[in-house]
């Protein structure tokens, strides 16, 4: 792990996820509430074609944030931009972003378009004006928000945490390796407040922070940036469900300067975790299509 300085004094954790360090770099950008090492199964399927690098956004994984931080999605763009410049100083970067991580890469590509060769985004968070006009009560009632607030934050052991998430959706859809990585690197040991020296596991990304990111994501401002982003972008979406990010994916692709949409109607918002091989193949194929083009193509 290395650390890259970002805005507001945040030191962003960056992980090598596998692959040949002399190969083109793929930056993996995670979803809200997760961390980069959840995508190790996806990276493993791309290791023969890329150097796979993952970023932990502020408040996630190994990147801490002030507990009193007021969520501002632009700061996730800061983290993505700082890491992109560090891992690909000469440009030519391919980015894969999932949900919030897709929005962060779009912000970074808007600010620094020469940095990115291509983007593949799985249900990035960007809302049209009609969605952004929802009332606060409607936003807080979204399933993705209420689900985050119900997430259990403490467990006595890794085995207990893994069994809990394996038994109930949506995390139950994750392949075992991805779920193991989520638990292994998504919790920290904390003392039990009973006067003993015992410890338990606590989520690194608190449910309240996860929910706040979802609430503020409705008005994250990314939609207005899309027509100004020149990077060729493949937008992937799972089956279309009302009030879920999948319902916006086709519109996002259409609003981009050079966007392509593919619907994977046998997948959900957790597609990169449940179908890492299929998503990896789509990333590799789209990246290869860019490298095969002639300079004028």
What would you say this structure looks like, in words?
- There is one protein chain.
- The chain has a domain at 2-133 and 218-291: Rossmann fold (3-Layer(aba) Sandwich).
- Helices cover 37% and strands 20% of the residues.
- The chain has helices at residues 40-44, 73-87, 100-111, 129-132, 136-140, 143-150, 158-166, 176-186, 207-217, 222-225, 249-255, 271-274, 276-291, and strands at residues 2-5, 11-18, 25-29, 51-56, 93-98, 116-122, 154-155, 187-191, 199-203, 233-238, 259-264.
- Helix 2 (73-87) crosses helix 3.
- Strand 3 (25-29), helix 1 and strand 4 (51-56) form a beta-alpha-beta unit.
- The protein is globular.
- It has 13 helices and eleven strands.
- The chain starts with a strand and ends in a 6-residue tail after the last helix.
State the separation between the terminal residues, measured CA to CA.
Answer: 38 Å
Number of helical regions = 13
User: How many beta strands in the DSSP annotation?
Assistant: 11
Q: Poorly predicted ranges (pLDDT <50, ≥5 residues)?
A: 293-297
Order of helices and strands: EEEHEHEHEHHHEHHEEHHEHEHH
Radius of gyration: 18 Å
How would you state the average pLDDT, rounded?
93
Task: State the CATH architecture of the domain at 2-133 and 218-291.
Answer: 3-Layer(aba) Sandwich
Strand order of the largest sheet: 1-2-4-3-5-6-10-11
Structural class: alpha/beta
Q: Please identify the top-level CATH class of the domain at 2-133 and 218-291.
A: Alpha Beta
């Amino acid at each position: 792990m290395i650390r890259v300085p970002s805005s507001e004094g945040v030191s962003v954790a960056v992980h090598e996820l596998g692959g040949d360090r002399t190969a083109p770099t793929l930056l993996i950008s995670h979803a809200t509430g997760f961390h980069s090492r959840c995508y190790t199964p996806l990276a493993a399927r791309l290791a023969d074609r890329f150097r796979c690098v993952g970023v932990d956004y502020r408040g996630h994984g190994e990147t801490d944030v002030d507990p009193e931080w007021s969520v501002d999605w632009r700061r996730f763009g800061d983290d993505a931009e700082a890491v992109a410049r560090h891992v690909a100083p000469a440009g030519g970067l391919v980015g894969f972003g999932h949900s919030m991580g897709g929005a962060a890469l779009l912000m970074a590509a808007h600010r620094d378009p020469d940095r990115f060769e291509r983007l593949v985004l799985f249900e990035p968070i960007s809302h049209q004006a009609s969605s952004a006009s929802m009332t606060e009560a409607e936003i807080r009632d979204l399933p993705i928000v209420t689900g985050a607030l119900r997430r259990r934050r403490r467990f006595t052991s890794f085995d207990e945490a893994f069994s809990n998430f394996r038994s109930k959706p949506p995390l139950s859809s994750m392949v075992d390796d991805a779920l193991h990585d989520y638990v292994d690197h998504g919790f920290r040991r904390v003392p039990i407040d009973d006067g003993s020296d015992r410890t338990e596991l606590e989520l690194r990304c608190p449910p309240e922070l996860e929910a706040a990111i979802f609430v503020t994501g409705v008005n994250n401002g990314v939609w207005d940036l899309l027509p100004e982003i020149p990077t060729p972008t493949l937008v992937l979406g799972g089956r279309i469900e009302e009030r879920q990010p999948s319902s916006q994916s086709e519109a996002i692709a259409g609003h981009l300067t050079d966007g392509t949409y593919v619907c994977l109607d046998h997948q959900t918002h957790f597609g990169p975790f449940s179908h890492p091989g299929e998503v990896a193949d789509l990333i590799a194929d789209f990246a290869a299509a860019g490298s095969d083009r002639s300079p004028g193509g």
